[in-house]
Amino acid sequence: MDFGSPNQNPLLSKQAIIVLREELEYFVIPPEDGGKSGAGTDQHGIANQVLLDMKRESGVQLLEKKQIFTALQRNVNKENNVAEQHLIDMLCMSGFNRDDAWGYRALEPSRCCISSIALVLLKTGINHPADGSPATVDQQQMATAQKLLLFWRKPARKCWWDGAEAVLPPSKTSPSHVVKLWARRVWTLELSLI
User: Fold this and answer.
1) Rounded-to-integer distance, Cα 116 and Cα 25, Å
2) Burial letters for 167-190: b for 16+ Cβ neighbours within 10 Å, e otherwise?
3) Paired sense of beta strands 126-127 and 104-107, if any
4) 87: which of 7, 53, 119, 158 is 20 to 30 A away, CA to CA?
5) 43 alpha-carbon distance from chain centroid
6) How far is the C-alpha of 12 from the C-alpha of 46, rounded, in Å?
7) Exposure of 18 by Cβ count < 10 A (0-12 exposed, 13-18 middle, 19+ buried)?
Protein backbone atom coordinates (compact mmCIF):
# COMPACT_ATOMS: atom_id res chain seq x y z
CA MET A 1 0.00 0.00 0.00
CA ASP A 2 1.34 3.43 -0.92
CA PHE A 3 1.07 6.06 1.81
CA GLY A 4 2.20 8.86 -0.49
CA SER A 5 4.94 11.36 0.12
CA PRO A 6 5.82 12.67 3.59
CA ASN A 7 3.99 15.87 2.60
CA GLN A 8 0.75 13.91 2.14
CA ASN A 9 1.28 11.64 5.16
CA PRO A 10 3.10 13.48 7.97
CA LEU A 11 3.35 10.21 9.93
CA LEU A 12 6.15 9.17 7.56
CA SER A 13 8.40 12.08 8.52
CA LYS A 14 7.29 13.30 11.97
CA GLN A 15 6.73 11.74 15.37
CA ALA A 16 3.11 11.92 16.50
CA ILE A 17 2.11 12.23 20.15
CA ILE A 18 -1.38 11.52 21.45
CA VAL A 19 -2.38 14.13 24.05
CA LEU A 20 -5.29 13.15 26.30
CA ARG A 21 -6.51 15.62 28.92
CA GLU A 22 -9.24 15.28 31.51
CA GLU A 23 -10.95 18.06 33.39
CA LEU A 24 -12.89 16.51 36.27
CA GLU A 25 -15.24 18.82 38.11
CA TYR A 26 -16.85 17.17 41.12
CA PHE A 27 -19.79 18.02 43.35
CA VAL A 28 -20.17 16.65 46.88
CA ILE A 29 -23.67 15.69 47.99
CA PRO A 30 -23.68 15.89 51.80
CA PRO A 31 -25.26 12.93 53.58
CA GLU A 32 -28.93 13.17 54.51
CA ASP A 33 -28.32 12.63 58.19
CA GLY A 34 -30.56 15.26 59.73
CA GLY A 35 -27.62 17.60 60.27
CA LYS A 36 -25.47 15.10 62.22
CA SER A 37 -22.49 15.61 59.90
CA GLY A 38 -22.71 19.38 60.33
CA ALA A 39 -22.20 19.96 56.59
CA GLY A 40 -24.21 22.78 55.11
CA THR A 41 -24.33 26.31 53.81
CA ASP A 42 -25.23 29.65 55.29
CA GLN A 43 -28.16 31.85 54.19
CA HIS A 44 -26.06 33.09 51.24
CA GLY A 45 -25.23 29.58 50.00
CA ILE A 46 -21.62 29.71 51.23
CA ALA A 47 -20.29 26.32 52.39
CA ASN A 48 -19.42 25.96 56.06
CA GLN A 49 -16.08 24.51 57.20
CA VAL A 50 -17.44 20.95 57.53
CA LEU A 51 -18.69 20.97 53.94
CA LEU A 52 -15.41 22.50 52.74
CA ASP A 53 -13.52 19.70 54.52
CA MET A 54 -15.78 17.12 52.84
CA LYS A 55 -15.04 18.65 49.45
CA ARG A 56 -11.31 18.73 50.11
CA GLU A 57 -11.12 15.11 51.33
CA SER A 58 -13.32 13.91 48.45
CA GLY A 59 -10.97 15.64 46.01
CA VAL A 60 -7.94 13.94 47.58
CA GLN A 61 -9.63 10.55 47.20
CA LEU A 62 -10.56 11.21 43.56
CA LEU A 63 -7.00 12.38 42.92
CA GLU A 64 -5.71 8.97 44.03
CA LYS A 65 -7.80 7.23 41.34
CA LYS A 66 -5.21 7.57 38.60
CA GLN A 67 -6.20 4.97 36.01
CA ILE A 68 -7.14 6.64 32.75
CA PHE A 69 -9.83 4.35 31.39
CA THR A 70 -11.64 3.19 34.57
CA ALA A 71 -14.36 5.88 34.56
CA LEU A 72 -15.02 5.67 30.81
CA GLN A 73 -15.11 1.85 30.94
CA ARG A 74 -17.61 2.07 33.83
CA ASN A 75 -19.75 4.33 31.63
CA VAL A 76 -19.45 1.87 28.71
CA ASN A 77 -20.53 -1.01 30.96
CA LYS A 78 -23.44 0.99 32.41
CA GLU A 79 -24.83 2.28 29.11
CA ASN A 80 -23.43 -0.31 26.67
CA ASN A 81 -22.04 2.52 24.54
CA VAL A 82 -20.28 0.98 21.52
CA ALA A 83 -18.75 4.31 20.37
CA GLU A 84 -17.02 4.84 23.74
CA GLN A 85 -15.74 1.25 23.71
CA HIS A 86 -14.38 1.87 20.21
CA LEU A 87 -12.60 5.01 21.49
CA ILE A 88 -10.91 3.02 24.28
CA ASP A 89 -9.93 0.25 21.84
CA MET A 90 -8.53 2.73 19.31
CA LEU A 91 -6.49 4.57 21.95
CA CYS A 92 -5.14 1.29 23.34
CA MET A 93 -4.19 0.09 19.87
CA SER A 94 -2.44 3.41 19.21
CA GLY A 95 -0.13 3.59 22.21
CA PHE A 96 -2.05 3.54 25.49
CA ASN A 97 -2.49 0.46 27.69
CA ARG A 98 -5.79 -0.34 29.38
CA ASP A 99 -4.21 -0.04 32.83
CA ASP A 100 -2.28 3.21 32.16
CA ALA A 101 -2.32 5.96 34.77
CA TRP A 102 -2.47 9.69 34.16
CA GLY A 103 1.03 11.12 33.70
CA TYR A 104 0.08 14.28 35.59
CA ARG A 105 -2.92 14.73 37.88
CA ALA A 106 -3.50 17.70 40.18
CA LEU A 107 -6.26 19.10 42.35
CA GLU A 108 -6.79 22.76 41.59
CA PRO A 109 -6.58 24.96 44.70
CA SER A 110 -9.85 26.50 45.91
CA ARG A 111 -11.86 24.56 43.30
CA CYS A 112 -13.51 21.16 43.15
CA CYS A 113 -11.62 20.36 39.97
CA ILE A 114 -8.89 17.88 39.01
CA SER A 115 -6.81 18.35 35.85
CA SER A 116 -5.05 15.37 34.30
CA ILE A 117 -2.92 14.78 31.22
CA ALA A 118 -1.35 11.75 29.56
CA LEU A 119 1.00 11.70 26.56
CA VAL A 120 2.01 8.68 24.49
CA LEU A 121 3.89 8.20 21.24
CA LEU A 122 1.52 7.20 18.46
CA LYS A 123 2.19 3.70 17.15
CA THR A 124 2.36 4.02 13.36
CA GLY A 125 3.32 0.45 12.52
CA ILE A 126 6.56 1.55 10.83
CA ASN A 127 9.35 -0.88 11.76
CA HIS A 128 13.00 -0.13 11.01
CA PRO A 129 15.03 -3.37 11.22
CA ALA A 130 18.37 -3.10 13.04
CA ASP A 131 20.20 -4.80 10.17
CA GLY A 132 19.54 -1.86 7.84
CA SER A 133 17.08 -3.65 5.58
CA PRO A 134 14.10 -1.64 4.27
CA ALA A 135 11.44 -0.51 6.71
CA THR A 136 8.20 -2.45 6.92
CA VAL A 137 4.76 -1.08 7.66
CA ASP A 138 1.93 -2.79 9.55
CA GLN A 139 -0.98 -1.69 7.34
CA GLN A 140 -3.67 -2.04 10.01
CA GLN A 141 -1.63 -0.06 12.54
CA MET A 142 -0.94 2.70 9.98
CA ALA A 143 -4.65 2.88 9.10
CA THR A 144 -5.52 3.39 12.78
CA ALA A 145 -2.78 6.01 13.12
CA GLN A 146 -4.16 7.85 10.10
CA LYS A 147 -7.61 7.95 11.73
CA LEU A 148 -6.02 9.75 14.67
CA LEU A 149 -4.63 12.36 12.26
CA LEU A 150 -8.18 13.75 12.29
CA PHE A 151 -7.35 15.14 15.76
CA TRP A 152 -4.26 17.00 14.57
CA ARG A 153 -5.03 20.72 14.95
CA LYS A 154 -8.67 19.75 15.61
CA PRO A 155 -9.07 18.45 19.18
CA ALA A 156 -12.16 16.40 20.00
CA ARG A 157 -14.09 16.56 23.26
CA LYS A 158 -16.04 13.94 25.13
CA CYS A 159 -18.11 14.90 28.16
CA TRP A 160 -20.06 12.71 30.57
CA TRP A 161 -21.36 12.57 34.12
CA ASP A 162 -20.11 9.95 36.53
CA GLY A 163 -21.38 9.00 39.98
CA ALA A 164 -18.93 8.02 42.71
CA GLU A 165 -18.59 7.75 46.47
CA ALA A 166 -15.96 8.85 48.93
CA VAL A 167 -15.47 7.34 52.37
CA LEU A 168 -14.53 10.22 54.61
CA PRO A 169 -12.46 9.51 57.71
CA PRO A 170 -13.68 10.65 61.12
CA SER A 171 -12.85 14.20 62.10
CA LYS A 172 -13.22 16.37 65.20
CA THR A 173 -16.70 17.37 64.07
CA SER A 174 -18.09 14.20 62.44
CA PRO A 175 -17.73 10.41 62.37
CA SER A 176 -16.53 8.45 59.33
CA HIS A 177 -19.20 8.40 56.64
CA VAL A 178 -19.83 7.95 52.93
CA VAL A 179 -20.68 10.89 50.68
CA LYS A 180 -21.96 10.70 47.14
CA LEU A 181 -20.18 12.61 44.39
CA TRP A 182 -21.24 13.74 40.93
CA ALA A 183 -18.33 14.20 38.59
CA ARG A 184 -18.46 15.96 35.24
CA ARG A 185 -15.60 14.63 33.13
CA VAL A 186 -14.42 16.35 29.97
CA TRP A 187 -11.82 14.60 27.85
CA THR A 188 -9.92 16.45 25.16
CA LEU A 189 -8.11 14.30 22.62
CA GLU A 190 -5.62 15.75 20.18
CA LEU A 191 -2.62 14.74 18.14
CA SER A 192 0.60 16.70 18.09
CA LEU A 193 3.33 16.30 15.46
CA ILE A 194 6.95 17.09 16.28
Assistant:
1) 11
2) ebeeeeebeebebebebebebbbb
3) unpaired
4) 7
5) 36
6) 56
7) buried
Residue from 148, 66, 138, 154 nearest 102 by CA: 66
Q: What is this structure's pTM?
A: 0.84
**Of 120, 111, 34, 33, which Cα lies nearest the Cα of 69?**
120
CA 137/CA 124 separation, integer angstroms: 8
Half-sphere exposure of 51 (CA within 13 A, CB side): 16
| pLDDT tens digits in sequence order for the chain, 194 residues long | 455 555 577 887 888 999 999 999 999 988 776 666 677 777 888 888 878 888 999 999 999 999 999 999 998 998 888 999 999 999 999 999 999 999 999 999 889 999 999 999 999 888 878 888 888 888 888 888 888 888 998 999 999 999 999 998 887 766 778 899 999 999 999 999 98
